[in-house]
């Protein structure tokens, strides 16, 4: 089943998208426009300003905003559909949209005064690395923050930027809540308060602008800091892994784009040696059938586990170990399956796929790069197995475990 065709042109924020259906329709309408800009996005190594505004106009950056704040409050599955649709157009744009919509998830950990300030722009974009590679020294009223954070996807156009820090007091690391060896806290500041360091020269996802960013002795008020163990509201969006739920939309969208592309190529191709049409070639038929089978299974695993996760969090049901790890494993599988599919499609197309003029070249490089993300690594699989066996997960956080 191919991705639906463009439904309508993106009309801008003079008509604010207010429903999940409208946001998804705009995302699908934006996909061919993003596809036209893919070469430019990769070449410039960040999203051009008008592409950022195109994404804003879809409403993607408000998809995690709760109803009580005037937002559309898309479920995890609905969010993933939007990210999948945008990634069908361009992987880097989809990746930045997936990262940038975290504004309203982070807001669930902040006090009402900061949230009121943030609500002035429902389409605000957030970027940043949550892992504690920075340092936050306690001072009256807040922190003095110094650090350099890598992998700031979308930091070139972000309104808000977060950075994970180890809290220090009187020059010494501070213990964390519950006797944790360190106090891991996230700080939130305006994008212009950080210096961007152009380090993003990569094989794939070049257009995501995932460069380093840094600050020296930046004052951050206490109310603009938080940690994931102390939400200020309840509901699915304050689950520890809520901001990871829509991540698999990116590889799923890219794999779908590649499959549709090769199916279109097949309509006019013949086997060079025999003159047999590709549509009648056993080799081609089997490759396409296998790819469709694997993508369908991976996609249904993602959406099935996301529906289950949302329902459980809504109802407050304590998950079994199998339920706890299911969405994380489906996420890893989506990345790996997508890369495998596009690799085999490239083999099928042959030498034509190695040129920069072929989108298969870019899709394969994009998937290879995103599969190096920590969320697609073996450590997640180990942690899932450890949790199922009652052992010690090396990476509990991506499983939604608090410790």
CATH superfamily of the largest domain: Butyryl-CoA Dehydrogenase, subunit A, domain 3
In terms of quaternary structure, the protein is single chain
Any low-confidence stretches, pLDDT <50, length ≥5? 1-12
In the CATH hierarchy, the third-tier topology of the largest domain is known as: Butyryl-CoA Dehydrogenase, subunit A, domain 3
Fraction in beta strands:
5-15%
Q: Provide the structure class.
A: alpha+beta
Looking at the overall shape, the CATH architecture of the largest domain is Up-down Bundle
The counted number of beta strands is 8
Which class of the largest domain in CATH terms?
Answer: Mainly Alpha
- Rounded to the nearest angstrom, the radius of gyration is 22 Å
Tell me about this structure.
The protein has 403 residues and is an alpha+beta fold. The protein folds into 3 domains: 20-107, Butyryl-Coa Dehydrogenase, subunit A, domain 1 (Orthogonal Bundle), CATH 1.10.540.10; 126-226, Butyryl-CoA Dehydrogenase, subunit A, domain 2 (Beta Barrel); 248-399, Up-down Bundle (Butyryl-CoA Dehydrogenase, subunit A, domain 3). The protein has 12 helices and 8 strands. The protein has helices at residues 20-36, 38-44, 49-58, 76-89, 91-100, 103-107, 112-118, 249-266, 282-315, 321-349, 359-370, 378-389, and strands at residues 126-139, 142-152, 160-169, 172-173, 184-190, 195-197, 211-221, 225-226. Strands 1, 2, 3, 4, 5, 6, 7 and 8 form an 8-stranded mixed sheet that branches. Helix 4 runs antiparallel to helix 5 (91-100), helix 8 runs parallel beside helix 10 and helix 10 (321-349) runs antiparallel to helix 11. The longest helix is centred in the C-terminal third of the chain and has 34 residues, at 282-315. It is globular, with a radius of gyration of 22 Å.
